[in-house]
Amino acid sequence: MFKFSIIYFLFLIAANIYAAQQSIRLYICNNFLKDNCVMLPEFDNTEIAFKYRTNKELKQARFLFASMGSPALTTIGIAFTKLAMSLKLPINGIIKNTIFKQFCGGENLEEAAETAAMLNDYHIGVILDYGVEGKEGEETFDAAVPEFMKAIDFAATQKNISFISLKVTGFARFALLEKMNKNEELNIEEQAEWQRVQNRIDLICSKAAARDIKVLIDAEESWIQNPIDELCDTMMEQYNKTHAIVYNTFQLYLHSRLPFLKISLQKAQQKNYKLGAKLVRGAYMEKERQRAAALGYPSPVQATKEHSDKDYNDSVDYCMEHISYLGLFIGTHNEKSCLQAVAKMQSLNIETKHNNIYFSQLFGMSDNISFNLAAQGFRVAKYLPYGPVKDVMPYLMRRAQENTSVAGQTGRELGLINKELQRRK
Ligand SMILES: Cc1cc2nc3c(=O)[nH]c(=O)nc-3n(C[C@H](O)[C@H](O)[C@H](O)COP(=O)(O)OP(=O)(O)OC[C@H]3O[C@@H](n4cnc5c(N)ncnc54)[C@H](O)[C@@H]3O)c2cc1C
């Protein structure tokens, strides 16, 4: 009798979860699609989401996400890795077979190409992200340019690689951008330095335009973002004449960004070019808030998560409503935002495989969204960082920290992996 009650109780919980999911889907269907109600993608189909992963790989991923879910383990792991690297201990192999394998495409373009080819089998595109970060110096900045040129040439030969991404701080000194952001006058050397930065980015964008490869320019900290925005606008004006080649990134966790998105579109229309709009919520929330508190200015970040969500979803809607004037790139792991975007496309009768609309998630995360959207015919591309293990460490540490702080995301990944392993038994 007791056993029967437990089984019945578990059954009730499962039925409630299923019913809740169905009612969210129905709510969106009824409120956004009305008479034109078409079924939305199911993000809990783990068979589709993890078809490309063996049981062994799934178990490794489960172990990794479970470890990252523990803040104590993550803090110790990061501290130990930093120490081991500074002491030049041979830990590259361990990192490469664990966290690197989960979140990166390979140590070089050739290795990344294999991962990209695998994703192509599932109709998933790739954004090549040369993940070397946090290094400064004119030599380093100059040396990065040929790496990006190589990536563009390679992408142009591949069916499913139509994007590369870059960070302006990979080509410019942080302090220079900070000074420009404050509107301080640059001295003669600094003016020459800024000119070199513009030349580097221009070389990359002009090559990308010639080979029809799109360039996503990442958004970074708000106190260096103005010169990045201006650079993006200049590049877009030059290379986005017929369609979006260069994309600026809009962080909707900043309350200024939805109005700025609208201004950017107006500017593009006045100057007769297409806006490239990559929409994200934003990755530097804690840093932004801490700096604002320390320096005593109002935080530029939205007051609550709900405010960020609202501006994110409103921005997606706004872009969809103006889709013939822009290229839209929806960078999010948020299932609701993706479902709402699909619903909006359907309500506006925008075809599933519209040329100007891409959904994107990071490699190694939210496969349930990427693979299920792609299976339904939407354009999906994964951000695929690559580079030597030691150079992509800042990226990997961010992933580890993000998966610790975003408890919900880690829980979701673990739940889905467990579900799939159970299904395969
Ligand atoms: C393809 C892709 C490209 C990306 N490129 C960039 C980039 O160029 N620049 C960049 O900064 N980030 C970038 N990101 C990261 C992104 O900004 C988010 O940090 C990350 O995707 C989590 O947000 P979400 O929409 O996926 O999901 P969610 O889990 O729904 O949202 C989490 C996000 O909501 C916001 N948030 C959380 N709590 C609060 C709160 N209390 N108040 C206000 N806001 C809150 C934060 O932005 C947080 O990261 C990218 C992400 C993807 C998937």
The topology string of helices and strands comes to HHHHHHHEHEHHEHEHEHHEHEHEHH
Largest β-sheet summary? 8 strands, parallel, barrel
Bound molecule kinds, no repeats: flavin-adenine dinucleotide
| Discrete helix count | 18
Helix content: 55-70%
Rg result: 22 Å
Quaternary status of these chains?
A: single chain
Per CATH, which architecture of the largest domain?
Answer: Alpha-Beta Barrel
Determine the N-to-C terminus distance: 28 Å
Q: What is the strand content?
A: 5-15%
Uncertain stretches of 5 or more adjacent residues: 33-37
Question: Structural class of the helix and strand makeup?
Answer: alpha/beta
Major sheet: order of its strands? 1-2-3-4-5-6-7-8
Indicate the CATH topology of the largest domain: TIM Barrel
Q: What is the total tally of β strands?
A: 8
CATH class of the largest domain: Alpha Beta
Shape: globular
Describe the structure.
- With 425 residues, the chain is of the alpha/beta class.
- It has helices spanning 2-33, 46-49, 55-68, 71-86, 92-97, 99-103, 109-120, 138-156, 174-181, 188-210, 225-239, 257-271, 285-295, 305-321, 335-347, 367-375, 393-405, 407-424; strands spanning 125-130, 161-166, 214-217, 246-251, 275-280, 326-331, 357-362, 380-386.
- Helix 15 links the parallel strand 6 (326-331) and strand 7.
- The longest helix has 32 residues, at 2-33.
- The structure holds flavin-adenine dinucleotide.
- Flavin-adenine dinucleotide binds at residues 218-219, 249, 251, 253, 280-285, 301-302, 304-305, 308, 331-334, 360-362, 383, 406, 409.
